[in-house]
Input
Amino acid sequence: MSAKLWGGRFAREMAPELLGFHSSLPFDRRLYREDIEGSIAHARMLGRCGILTAEEARRLEEGLRQILEDWEGGRLDLAGREAEDIHSLVESLLVERVGEVGKKLHTARSRNDQVALDLRLYLKRALAGIAGQLRELEEVLLRLAEEHREVVLPGYTHLQPAQPVLLAHHLLAYFEMFLRDLDRLGDCYRRADVSPLGAGALAGVTFPIDREMTARELGFAAVAANSMDAVSDRDFAVEFLAAAALIMAHLSRFCEELVLWSAAEFGFVELDDAYATGSSIMPQKKNPDVPELIRGKAGRVYGHLMALLTVLKGLPLTYNKDLQEDKEALFDTVDTLRGCLGIFIPLLATLRFNAAAMRAATARGFLNATDVADYLARRGMPFREAHALVGRLVRSCLEAGRTLEDLTLEEWRAYSPLFAEDILEAVKLERCLAARDVPGGTAPQRVAEALAQARRRLAELVAARPGLFPAGKS
Output
């Protein structure tokens, strides 16, 4: 059976080979819930405004609710049905159930404002789901940071040992990334929270509709200010894809570290057996496939962002069929991101950190060299001179197979009379950590403060984004 919302102007039927190319139903059918809910709100408004009779509006709403119940209950037989899109499919199902009055549903509406509405409703729900996962991820990070507040490991630049940091400080760096991601999702939600319904095809409609009513019925905060922009705007989708790309970038960076840290050369972490795989030929292997897959899927999301930007870059106002390409990019990004978060959160929650290996690694790489240069600078030596002097010290230790902690006071003073007995304490690991006692630093007291502030900031962000975090829901 064919469901087509146009045809009177055409003398010939659509070429059979065009239907499959033209149809978006294989992928936009997932919008059935949003399409039906939008249609219910539209029908109620038509009845309230007197555009349809109260009885007509009631029959439309009843028929639509039955379709939704049957769809979600698995009672709809859609085999063999042909339709251009979800809109034409729903309307044909409605006409079958309620008769000719079903053809009145499309009064004062176009598929152009209808699909924009469906996408916005879908994205709002998707954003809330993703935000809930990010919130859960943040809670795991805070728990792990609290549990490992005293664990020390090397911090790296250029993947070379640089300075000592607390593991909690390292984990809180990712907390900051994902908190920004949550904030960005809130901005995405706010700009998606605008109803385009009533814009019609592009210029508005000729019926006395109530756009504010449908917006309220569907939970939108506002109505689109310009009908042409309403049907052609996909900024909200691009903005989401950009935010999703950044989330995937942050996940990918974290996963890269887990791949490195789980290697024998580091030995900093061990993945739980439930989130690792083995080799078909090497029985000793425990492979970090989950972080590798997430790292790989980041490119997939980046590609969707570039694809939609490219679709939009040359489109004249208003609606163009090119915009049909927005859905697969949006849907796959939502699926990919939710899937990655869904597996990364339990993987992270079950990680086993090897505090001894991390501590041992701090003995390599002269992580206290900067502290020695700072020591001299505080005693009046220009920092550039201090930098050069410590560089020579490090080279001497490397040649002798020693560390800075191995040097005697006499050896220190042979390089500069500015070195006093307190240098022997200044180069110890705990002193190097404690010395970084500035806001945002890795000193234990600052990290403790940062943990408390992180919990407060997360709670404040959640409270400030009621659309993303409805009351009583995580």
